[in-house]
């Protein structure tokens, strides 16, 4: 029985869902495509995968944390481009998939299983880059993740993270026959209700009702500012703009961005008055992160991180 690392029932539930999704082999759980063999080719592949958000970031000799990045190429490519890469995820299967591929390629990574809201196994200022793709949506308290990331980043380090767009996520499954309606108000917290939790990719169909949270843009900006992170890049985008039949996800994503991505740089100590740093209305402030109370059976991630092939 694997040790419990989830800090609450939300994470424990989502962990079970990701184990199920990984078992079914949906695309987010398997490295997609084959990177070229040359360094230049690998960098090109990584730049495409990260939509150019790395900019001129030089990977060689850098310490990179791929947060909640199980099942993907990112950590392997950072390592093969000369970085000291750590892969962190809550799902054993997601970690194992990457470990198998990395072992086959002779690529060394550090693996940590844990909840993204508790990075206590990682020290202050240990990383030059935290790359965090499409997964802050799985926790209710994004501010807590951002504060932890700011702590483990070195001054000058980058945090690149993406999530479901907070407007669009409230509209999926909301086709009325003549237009799109919201399933939830923009100002309301809590998980977004999902009518049909079937993940469908070609022939793969799996029922996995993950708990997902549509973090408001101003709240994410404010959490960054409050943790000493200055945003220097913001992208709103969809995987494709071709559209589809009225009422389909492709139709919605042609009109509104599916994702939002931030790039932020740690400039030092957190701002003294983060509320002055942006225009958030008082009632949209994120709740203060709750004090960490370990649930029954919780054990901190093993500080002896597993390193190797
Ligand atoms: C959409 S996938 C992102 C990884 C993917 N391979 C990619 O394209 O980068 C979401 C990942 O978040 C992980 N996850 C969900 N909740 C988590 C949590 N509380 N802490 C750490 N990882 C979590 C899942 O196990 C899953 O691997």
Q: Which CATH architecture?
A: 3-Layer(aba) Sandwich
- Helix-residue proportion: 10-25%
Shape: globular
Strand order of the largest sheet: 8-9-5-4-1-2-3-10
- Overall number of strands: 10
Give the CATH topology: Rossmann fold
Q: What number of domains?
A: 1
Bin the strand percentage: 15-25%
- Poorly predicted regions: 275-283
The succession of helices and strands, N to C, reads HHEHEHEEHEEEHEHEE
Itemize the secondary structure elements and their pairings.
Elements: H1 9-24, H2 39-49, E1 63-67, H3 74-80, E2 84-89, H4 92-105, E3 109-113, E4 127-132, H5 142-152, E5 153-164, E6 198-201, E7 204-207, H6 217-226, E8 229-237, H7 249-255, E9 259-266, E10 306-308
Parallel strand pairs: 1-2, 1-4, 2-3, 4-5
Antiparallel strand pairs: 3-10, 5-9, 6-7, 8-9
Would you kindly provide a written description of the structure presented here, covering whatever features stand out?
With 309 residues, the chain is α/β, with parallel strands linked by helices. The chain has a single domain (9-30, 56-289), classed as Vaccinia Virus protein VP39 (Rossmann fold, 3-Layer(aba) Sandwich), CATH 3.40.50.150. Helices cover 25% and strands 20% of the residues. The chain contains 7 helices and 10 strands. An 8-stranded mixed β-sheet has the order 8-9-5-4-1-2-3-10, sandwiched between helices. The protein has a two-stranded antiparallel sheet with strand order 6-7. It is globular. The two termini are 23 Å apart. Mean pLDDT is 91; it is low at 275-283. Bound molecules: S-adenosylmethionine (SAM). Residues 11, 14, 18, 28, 68-72, 74, 89-91, 94, 115-116, 133-135, 138-139 line the site of S-adenosylmethionine.
